[in-house]
Amino acid sequence: TQRVWARSELKQDKLRKVEEDGAAESSEGNADEVDLSKVYGYRVMRVFRGSPAARSNLAPFEDFIVAVDGTMCDPEMNALGNLLMQNENKEVELLVWNCIDERERQVKMTPSKWSGPGLLGAAVKHEKLEHSTDCIWHVVELTPRSPADKAGLVPNTDYIVGTPAAVFKREEEMSTLIRDAARKHEVVNLCVFSSATGRLREVELEPSENWGGKGFLGCELATGWLHRIPPRFDNNEEPARPSNFSTTGFSGNRPTSRDSLQSGKKDGHELTRKSSRRSSRDSA
């Protein structure tokens, strides 16, 4: 089970709401340990240019706003919008968790009116932190002049994470979206994260059965542990554990051996499912 750890650098009231919702203490009796499955945040879906969110370098898809000035965000008791309104034109400190690097950071921001909507200037969605990157699709290969190629997808470094409205939560959502668009001859807007640039972009893709090759897209997509977005730290550096929201306590490490590739044509486009079995070794 993924877990988040509260360190002494932050006040305990940042975790009070999580503990009230039933986050379990560790088996060793560490009262600061919080089950990641109990922690929610406001996932940044889109950042508008020139907004306070843009000036604070919040990143769509990967950033979750978990707390504002030590108060855990909660839609019922402490909605993000209410917390920002209470601090309009005042500098606040956001606790932001990044689901790619699996680490947190403190972000200073001043909620204020600007030329667009809201005091934040970002579209957000309340979601659980756990499993926030489980259903992404890695672009492994593509055929020249295919719909995927025309949309500008790049093999090896591109990861399809969802649409501008929502991140994929189940593997079949991608297949259903593509199949329906092809049947209706519609263009779909996809959000694609590039590990080469570290940025999210939107692409327009028109699935088709009649482009001259196999499948609707003309590319091979893969998902699973071996196809997760790589964290952004130096290869010689062990990823630093954040002061109060680091993930630890996995039931097993990421796979150390390469499982056989099971390829096939699923719902009209090439999808690959790598085995997501983890190593039997416990994490340190």
Please give a handful of descriptors for the protein shown.
284 residues, mainly beta, 7-stranded mixed beta sheet, 6-stranded antiparallel beta sheet, 16 strands, elongated, disordered N terminus
What's the arrangement of strands in the largest beta sheet? 12-11-10-9-13-16-15
The class by helix and strand makeup works out as mainly beta
- Spans of 5+ residues with little confidence (pLDDT < 50)? 1-19, 22-33, 235-284
What distance lies between the first and last C-alpha atoms, to the nearest angstrom? Answer: 13 Å
List how many beta strands DSSP finds: 16
| Share in helix | 10-25%
Task: Determine Rg (CA atoms, Å).
Answer: 20 Å
Q: Tally the helices: what do you get? A: 5
Question: Could you give a short account of the major beta sheet?
Answer: 7 strands, mixed
Mean pLDDT score: 76
Envelope shape: elongated
Query: Order of SSEs, N→C?
Result: EHEEHEEHEEEEHEHEEEEEE
What can you see in these coordinates?
A seven-stranded mixed beta sheet has the order 12-11-10-9-13-16-15. Strands 3, 4, 5, 6, 7 and 8 form a six-stranded antiparallel beta sheet that branches. A three-stranded antiparallel beta sheet has the order 2-1-14, with no helix packed on it. It is elongated. By secondary structure, the protein is mainly β. It has five helices and 16 strands. Helix content is 12%, strand content 30%. Mean pLDDT is 76; it is low at 1-19, 22-33 and 235-284. The protein has helices at residues 16-20, 52-55, 80-86, 147-150, 172-184, and strands at 3-5, 33-35, 40-47, 63-68, 71-72, 92-98, 103-109, 122-128, 137-142, 158-162, 188-194, 199-205, 219-223, 247-248, 263-266, 269-273. A hairpin with a 2-residue loop joins strand 15 (263-266) and strand 16.
